[in-house]
User: Fold this.
Amino acid sequence: MSEQKLLIATTNPGKITEFRKLLAGLPIRVIGPEDLTQAVPDCIEKGGSFCENARIKARHWFNHSGLASLADDSGLAVEALDGAPGIYSARFAGDGATDKDNLERLLERIHGVDHSERGASFICCLALCRTNGSLVMFQGRCDGVILDHPRGRGGFGYDPVFYYPPLGKTFAQLDPEGKNRVSHRGRALQSLREWLSRNEL
Assistant:
């Protein structure tokens, strides 16, 4: 199988680097927007779910580049908050919010909720728009509990308060490799990697 190009549908360089690492060893050249000869306009995410937004982004980048495009949408769903912050995870405290702002907003909203009712899930949805225009979806999920106070200095976003019972640590207390083995994105990417090993883009 000859090398194929896969465009990562994001302007986040850190995410592109992460995808390159996780897809290493496959006959695929992972590229980002900086490798394109033309600019791609901003994509408006109007979906009502992680998977809808991922599909919108993958299709948008494919339509403007003509290349197989991979997009992801992910976030945190807290049971006691009826699934919030959900698709608004990156802007839970408002537009332009920092990770710290969003984390503080979450702790404010869940203050006083009993530990037994603090179940939460990190969810990741990947959408691959193939060169023939068809879409393939991959999902990953990791269940945990939201703590009262942050623990650990690693990770990002809500990782410091997302406690993963099987390992007895928050995501922020895990090293990157350990987190990738159990995280929502790691699980979705493993499914994608297995699919890519058997299929053409």
Notes: The mean pLDDT is 93. The helical segments are 13-22, 50-65, 99-110, 176-182, 184-196.
